[in-house]
Write a structure and sequence with these properties.
Mean pLDDT: 90
Order of helices and strands: EEEEHEEEEHEE
Shape: globular
Distance between the termini: 16 Å
CATH class: Mainly Beta
Number of helices: 2
CATH superfamily: Acid Proteases
CATH topology: Cathepsin D, subunit A, domain 1
Helix content: under 10%
Low-confidence stretches: none
Number of domains: 1
Largest sheet: 10 strands, mixed
Radius of gyration: 15 Å
Structural class: mainly beta
Strand content: over 45%
């Protein structure tokens, strides 16, 4: 199980960001790792986004440049890198999009899981694996 929290954006809060703590390492050198908070984004179909400086710091290996359709329907191209994630007690190599914004955890990462968000300030965010 993975836990996080909802961070309130306004005072009084009218919306928030569901965040989880994620640890990423270089796919071939697990000594090069970093932990950070990622926003759970159910509108993002990929695994994870990271900023270019974090990708460089970890020395992630370039995989490809791939198009992505954004929420407004425009198509942008992003570099994709290989990274290793500690996820629910297991190590997985996943594709990571280089996007210079807040890190996002997307639906591909959440696949085969139950996502529960208590949408209140400091509410719980829980990701529970589903068994098949």
């Amino acid at each position: 199980m993975i836990n996080g929290a909802v961070i309130a954006l306004d005072n009084p809060p009218v919306t928030g960001k569901p965040i989880i703590n994620v640890t990423i390492s270089n796919a071939s050198d697990q000594q090069r790792s970093i932990s950070f908070y990622a926003i759970v984004d159910t509108g993002f179909t990929g695994f994870l986004t990271l900023g270019s400086s974090t990708i460089a710091q970890l020395g992630l290996s370039f995989i490809t440049n791939q198009p992505a359709v954004l929420a407004d329907g425009t198509i942008s191209h992003y570099d994709v890198y290989a990274g290793r994630i500690a996820w629910d007690g297991q190590q997985r190599v996943i594709p990571i999009y280089s996007v210079d914004s807040d890190p996002l955890a997307g639906m591909a990462l959440l696949w085969n899981s139950r996502l529960t968000i208590d949408a209140i300030p400091n509410g719980m965010v829980t990701i529970t694996p589903l068994t098949s």
